[in-house]
From TrEMBL:
One of the record's GO molecular function terms: oxygen binding
Gene3D superfamilies linked: Globins
Pfam family, any one: Protoglobin
Organism this protein belongs to: Viridibacillus arenosi FSL R5-213
Domain of life of the source: Bacteria
SUPFAM superfamilies, sorted: Globin-like (SSF46458)
Name of the protein: Methyl-accepting chemotaxis sensory transducer
InterPro entries for the chain: Globin-like_sf, Globin-sensor_dom, Globin/Proto, Protoglobin_sensor_dom
């Protein structure tokens, strides 16, 4: 559980840094799409059968989606607070 909280805390730091430097969410999401495409290529080169590859890609996609949700929600919160000021 401690490891998960450390990862979550680091993810929030990433969100706040992105918001602070003005990185728009569309660029953040685009970078993750490139990352996911890279994972696709790597998984396709493995010895796993097609069904297993799809399960792996699905799991990676869920992890990336969760990461994006955390960062984008934190980004939005930071952005809204900045607008209030």
């Amino acid at each position: 559980m401690d490891t998960l909280m450390k990862i979550f805390d680091k993810t929030l730091i990433i969100a706040f840094v992105h918001a602070k430097v003005g990185l728009e969410p569309k660029w953040y999401k685009s970078a993750f799409q490139d990352l996911l495409n890279g994972f696709f290529s790597i998984v396709q080169q493995t010895h796993f059968n097609h069904e297993e590859q799809l399960k792996i890609i699905n799991a990676i996609g869920k992890i990336i989606n969760f990461e994006q949700q955390i960062v984008l929600e934190a980004y939005e919160k930071h952005h809204q607070e900045a607008l209030k000021k």
